[in-house]
Amino acid sequence: MDDALTTRCGGACELCGATEGLTAAPVAPREDAVALCTACTAQVAGGELDPPHLRCLQSAMWSEVPAVQVVAWRLLTRLSDTEGWAREALEMLYLDPDLQAWAEAGLAPTGSGHRDSNGAELAQGDTVVLVKDLPVKGAGFTAKRGTAVRGIALVPDNPDQIEGRVEGQRIVILTRFVKKR
């Protein structure tokens, strides 16, 4: 590890705080790096996730270091399908648009490409919840925030859209206005 990174991290993993086996892990696609222990390095590189170990992300996500925020967002996104605490942490985490683009650029493309407002992968038949009031054009009503939409259908040619029933009407909903339940 270079001296600047060692000074910044204080000789500890920037995610979990471990002091043994530190290495500098690049945060693609930029040149930035974070100091990680052996366990965190394996998980960041795409290895099997260890949710109890990664609970450290609940504090690491508030780091002032942009590269640490990006790594935390990526790991939380991977965990959010199976871990409720990770989904909740993602809901609290705000990245400015540049950091968000950096974080998303490093995710491996998988599945349909349909993602909710927190970056969680959406699948056919999932249940989602609206995150804001949405006026429904042509139907004369507003779909209220917090409304559950069960059994969604993915729009095959547009990863930004899903279909679902709200108040008996089949409507198209933008994925940025829903979160996976």
Automatic annotation (TrEMBL):
Gene3D superfamilies: SH3 Domains
Pfam families listed in its UniProt record: YjdM
SMART domains referenced in this protein's UniProt entry, alphabetically: PhnA_Zn_Ribbon
InterPro entries: PhnaA_N_proteobac, YjdM_C
Domain of life: Bacteria
Domain named PhnA protein N-terminal proteobacterial: residues: 4-45
Protein name as catalogued: Protein PhnA
